[in-house]
Design goal:
The structure is a single chain. Helices cover 50% and strands 31% of the residues. It is of the alpha+beta class. Strands 1, 2, 3, 4 and 5 form a five-stranded antiparallel sheet that branches. The longest helix has 48 residues, at 2-49. It has helices spanning 2-49, 56-69, 103-116; strands at residues 75-79, 83-86, 90-100, 121-132, 137-151. It is built from three helices and five strands. Strand 2 and strand 3 form a beta hairpin.
Length: 153
């Protein structure tokens, strides 16, 4: 019994501790892998939903600059104020712009905004026409709603 207490008991205790440490190390490594994958997923989601912004009015100004620099053959009819929606996790900023022009130019403008304007994402578009009864002409309009977000925390 005395030899058990002096040799085997300490060996068995050390073996149990070694096994527990190995399990904790394996859990830690898997947690780091999961963290890496979560960060990649967050980056992909940010690309998908429009990225983060700290100044939503600046995004609106950059959209106007984008339209004017590219010299699209459209007229800007109206720009709505930035709309803010918040929930527990995000602040969502919506910008709305209304353009006037012919069908081809409006579609080209929409395509370029969707593909090249990276500061915000197009979430909704509406094309409609209005008839001017005095001049008996129809005017085509395109309303674009863009959104971007910011973490609320």
């Amino acid at each position: 019994m005395a030899s058990y207490k002096k040799t085997y008991k300490h060996t068995l205790t050390a073996k149990k501790e070694l096994r527990l440490v190995k399990e904790k190390l394996a859990n830690n490594e898997s947690s780091q892998n999961e963290l890496y994958y979560l960060k990649n997923d967050i980056g992909n989601l940010e690309k998908t939903i429009g990225g983060q912004t700290k100044n939503p009015e600046r995004v609106q100004q950059e959209l106007l600059d984008f339209i004017s620099i590219n010299e699209f053959n459209v007229n800007i009819v109206s720009i709505a104020d930035v709309h803010l929606f918040s929930d527990n996790d995000f602040l969502i900023y919506s910008n709305q712009i209304e353009l006037e022009g012919n069908y081809k130019d409006l579609i080209e403008t929409l395509y370029e905004i969707e593909k090249k304007f990276k500061n915000s994402r197009v979430v909704n578009t509406q094309m409609y026409s209005k008839k001017n009864y005095r001049t008996k002409t129809k005017t085509l309009y395109l309303k674009i709603i863009l959104q971007n977000y910011e973490n609320a925390k």
